[in-house]
Amino acid sequence: MKRILYIPLLFTIFLSCQGEKEHTAAAIYDKDSVSMMTSFGVNTLISDSGIMKYKIVAEEWEVNTVRHPSRWIFHKGLFMEQFDEKFQIQAFVQCDTAYYFDQNRLWELRGRVRIRTADGLRFASEELFWDQVSHEFYSHMFSKVITPERTMQGTYFRSNENMTRYMVTNSKGSFESADMGIGVEEAPATQGDAPADTAQQPKRTQTVPTKRTMPQQP
């Protein structure tokens, strides 16, 4: 009789042990994507070779030294002021997303990239790379450059860091005639039309000579 009572008890213990499960949750982020620092409401100055060269304004700034290559990440947009040696504002830079690869000293700007220089040049594209080693800007996407003298647009853009020497290939644009050294071409004048830049001269009437008859002698 005692043996019969032990059987249901052992069966209950067996079922309770079999029903136990380990509850684990998957990692939210991969280890390679965890940022070392995240700052909000950023307004700071960045130095280059001991000289203040940039002012950065951003809603969110992530510094990730674990990913390869390491980078700064600005997911919520970036506004930057670039200074010259006299701490005068040389250019304004703005975009929707930005990455700075600190080991390569390379900026990658994405989404509504806009640049305006102190000389009045305006640049617009959806992509722009800024190589601080070679001191160059370049883009492989459609770009538009507007200056007081000309407007250019094309699918490849390259410029020096100051935006004073640049080229746009696969391009089309409009230029001032004086800037190209070419005069305005005039359409050839047709017969009976006056020249475009001169006043119309009065026409001289021509008389047709008539045959004179001699009087008859009586």
Textual characterization of the structure:
The protein has 218 residues and is mainly beta. It has two helices and 14 strands, in the order αββββββββββββββα. The chain has helices at 2-18, 177-180; strands at 37-48, 51-64, 71-74, 78-83, 89-95, 97-101, 106-117, 122-131, 136-139, 143-146, 150-154, 156-160, 166-169, 172-175. It has a six-stranded antiparallel beta barrel.
Helix content: under 10%
Rg, Cα atoms, Å: 39 Å
* Strand residue percentage: 35-45%
What's the order of the H and E elements?
HEEEEEEEEEEEEEEH
| Principal-axis shape | globular
Short description:
The chain has 218 residues and is mainly β. The protein has two helices and 14 strands; from the N terminus they run αββββββββββββββα. A hairpin with a 4-residue loop joins strand 7 and strand 8.
Topology, pairings included?
Blueprint: H1 2-18, E1 37-48, E2 51-64, E3 71-74, E4 78-83, E5 89-95, E6 97-101, E7 106-117, E8 122-131, E9 136-139, E10 143-146, E11 150-154, E12 156-160, E13 166-169, E14 172-175, H2 177-180
Antiparallel strand pairs: 1-2, 2-3, 2-4, 3-6, 4-5, 5-7, 6-7, 7-8, 8-9, 8-10, 9-12, 10-11, 11-14, 12-13
